[in-house]
Design goal:
6% strand, transmembrane, transferase, mainly alpha, 2 domains, two-stranded antiparallel sheet, 6 strands, 329 residues
Length: 329
């Protein structure tokens, strides 16, 4: 449960207990606490940013009721699909208890993103909101959640990269043992990781920092240069895809296509970034007039509805005055 992680080049050392608390003997893990914290902060920000994009609190709540649990399911299913052997019993049957046990991690971010996007599509259809307008807000929320969620990997001492001697190299006995078990280091390499002369890339931190920069970039675009619905979402897909594709190539625990050397998330990252960049350019070149942004269209519809209601109220008042006048006669 407890791991010591050091960054010898930076003079830092941390003793990490994966268990945050144990009320009534039930362990609550930091991994889950951090994931939830990321989701809560994403909701907090999006609830305040939403009206500026034409998305109300009710719209956001309706989405989150379905998206949060189904995104977690999607993230787990994605991981299980590509690591199926880890969830098999000795007789080859699937172990459903292991599938449900996420205390050691095992959530693939892309699975969660895919599930959330699918849920968003159906929520938008039901509420008659343009998908891309709502997705703009969703992209910002996802970056917040992903930025914070990666620190759950740090507490679990996972999602790290290959060997390096850079000043910010990360070392621990757990890492040394896992590298040795995978055949990535020999006995001498194991000792170098143990004594801190070699370490691994803290790729969890690389991705967290990349997501933070991406979030700040999208906030800037939303305030100064947003020209069409979908612009922020396409920026999110392109930014995250490029970063994930590069960082995934450094990791030692990637998911692979069956028994090939092709990293699933790396391919998905670069492919989604390419498609998003192409869509970004196409929409920008064919962007509609500014008043066609959903936030302006929704404001116009609500203003028209309010005016109609006011007209009905005035008409009813006039009718009542006429009736009262007739009664006096």
């Amino acid at each position: 449960m407890i791991n010591t992680v050091s960054f010898p080049g930076l003079g830092l050392e941390f003793t990490l207990n994966r268990v945050a608390a144990s009320p009534f003997g039930f362990n609550i893990y930091w991994y889950a606490v951090i994931i939830v914290a990321g989701a809560v902060l994403a909701w907090f920000y999006c609830s305040r940013k939403g009206p500026k994009l034409g998305i109300s609190d009710d719209d956001l709540t309706d989405l989150l009721i379905f998206a949060v649990p189904l995104a977690l399911v999607g993230a787990r299913l994605y991981y299980i699909l590509f690591y199926l052997d880890l969830f098999k019993n000795e007789d080859g049957s699937l172990s459903f208890s292991r599938m449900l046990d996420v205390r050691d991690g095992g959530l693939a971010i892309y699975g969660g993103v895919i599930a959330a996007v699918i849920v968003l599509f159906f929520v938008c259809r039901y509420k008659k909101i343009p998908f891309l307008a709502f997705a703009d807000l969703g992209g910002m929320g996802l970056l917040i959640g992903q930025c914070i969620g990666r620190w759950g990997n740090f507490v679990n001492v996972e999602a790290y990269g290959g060997l390096t001697d850079l000043p910010w190299r990360m070392c621990s006995e757990k890492i040394a043992n896992e590298l040795y078990a995978k055949g990535l280091v020999d006995a001498a390499g194991w000792q170098q990781v143990m004594d801190g002369t070699l370490g691994v890339h803290p790729t969890f931190f690389y991705e967290s920092a990349w997501n933070l920069v991406g979030f700040l970039l999208i906030v800037l675009i939303s305030r100064k240069w947003r020209k069409f619905d979908g612009q922020l979402f396409f920026t999110y897909l392109a930014w995250y895809g490029v970063g994930r594709g590069i960082i995934e190539g450094m990791r030692t625990d990637s998911l692979y296509f069956m028994n090939t050397p092709i990293r699933v998330s790396q391919v998905l990252g670069f492919a989604s970034a390419l498609v998003a960049a192409a869509l970004w350019v196409w929409f920008y070149l064919h962007r509609p007039a500014p008043d066609q942004l959903w936030v302006h269209r929704r404001a116009a519809m609500e203003a028209a509805k309010a005016a109609s209601q006011q007209a009905d109220t005035d008409e009813n008042r006039d009718k009542e005055d006429e009736d009262n006048g007739s009664d006096h006669h």
